[in-house]
Amino acid sequence: MRYSKEHKQETHARIVKKASVRLREKGAHGIGVADLMKEAGLTHGGFYAHFDSREALVIEAFGYAMDRANERWRKMAEEIPAEKRFSTIVETYLTPLHRDDPGHGCAVPALGAEIARESPKTRKAFAAKIEQMIEMMTDQISGVPRKAARKQAIAALTTMMGTLVLSRIAGTGEFSDEILASGREAALGRTAASKPVAKKAKAKPN
Amino acid sequence: MRYSKEHKQETHARIVKKASVRLREKGAHGIGVADLMKEAGLTHGGFYAHFDSREALVIEAFGYAMDRANERWRKMAEEIPAEKRFSTIVETYLTPLHRDDPGHGCAVPALGAEIARESPKTRKAFAAKIEQMIEMMTDQISGVPRKAARKQAIAALTTMMGTLVLSRIAGTGEFSDEILASGREAALGRTAASKPVAKKAKAKPN
DNA sequence: TGTACATCAGTGAACGCGCGTTCACTGATGTAC
DNA sequence: TGTACATCAGTGAACGCGCGTTCACTGATGTAC
């Protein structure tokens, strides 16, 4: 065989990409190395030419999903006015479409709880991506000091992913839609209707 | 052997109780039948005299954890004035203590995402317990129409469990504490400072 | 009251299976001459 | 330019291991007589 120089990287990237979908769908332990390789059109034996271990792939696949998500939100934000960015992200996130397609959705509600139990190495890799996502979200909040915006970004993200998890447990019916709607209102309520976050966190610029 | 009539029920309850701790700690697939039985001081062979399958135990253990939590919150609520109930629950929930001890904490952040991927039977059993928890939480919100209280209860619960998941990914340091604090403020902000929830959901009694 | 038998919660060996990982091998292509 | 060799991404059999589940058995105690 011996392919061109870029071939291995391309294959590697393809494995990561396909794995990131299936892992979000099935969970961090829900699908095996052999099936993951089959997704990429390969056999399991070649796996260790690309990754040190299954865990290494999980880390890469999660990082890939998070990077793509951050990119996507940033690009989407560029194309809309500043004051609508935050609410657009929240509204796009908390839809039945996202709820019903975990494989192509946010990796945090899909894998977060499992990841928190993984090795420190894996957990820290996740934490770093979460931090990036918080920064991205903070950048989309206009009209408040950065410190307050960051608080609001964190609160919005926790509400968003928590809402998605609960709504997925509830399935796809009325109850699930109700959860989605409540989460949407809560995450948005902090900007649109009632400007600042809460109690004594309102003034204090910086 | 042949123990007294209640003996089997007691053993059964002990397995469920111990399992509910370990499953929350290690995840729905993170610990095996043999280890779970060892926790209860038994050998694995006797497992199927108590449960149809491993999955059946997972359902029972989760239900047990949720029932205990609901009981505990209700009892705690009884002993404090109505207007402080909601905030006390939120503040007790979003502590480093709870974050650092998943085994004795809320089962939703620990097992929710995994459960959403389980069989419909398991998922529905979970959904029913979630509904109960929402009702319990709704009962602790005073001064707003029930419909608005329910919305707020759902929003608070999603924020609470989402915050716990994120803070656990972040570990136990500053970043993690920051997430906890942001979640606390957000979940409380909807009552204390800015009374109603948001937009057009304020009036409309019932 | 005393004895023989039935019960059944719990034991521990064994089962089949799928998993992550290893390894000897393949064969198309780049490189050295 | 043509030929021999080296490379190494990918193959597929095999490994050891742990898992959920099954099953023949045990033995203390309840029950029938």
Explain what this protein looks like in three dimensions.
The first copy, chain A, has 206 residues and is mostly helical. Chain A has a domain at 53-187: Tetracycline Repressor, domain 2 (Orthogonal Bundle). Chain A is 67% helix and 0% strand. The first copy, chain A, has nine helices and no strands. The first copy, chain A, has helices spanning 5-26, 33-39, 54-78, 82-93, 96-99, 107-115, 120-139, 146-169, 174-189. The radius of gyration of chain A is 19 Å and the shape is globular. The model of chain A is unreliable at 192-206 (pLDDT under 50). The interface between A and B is large, with 58 and 58 residues. The structure holds a DNA duplex (33 and 33 nucleotides).
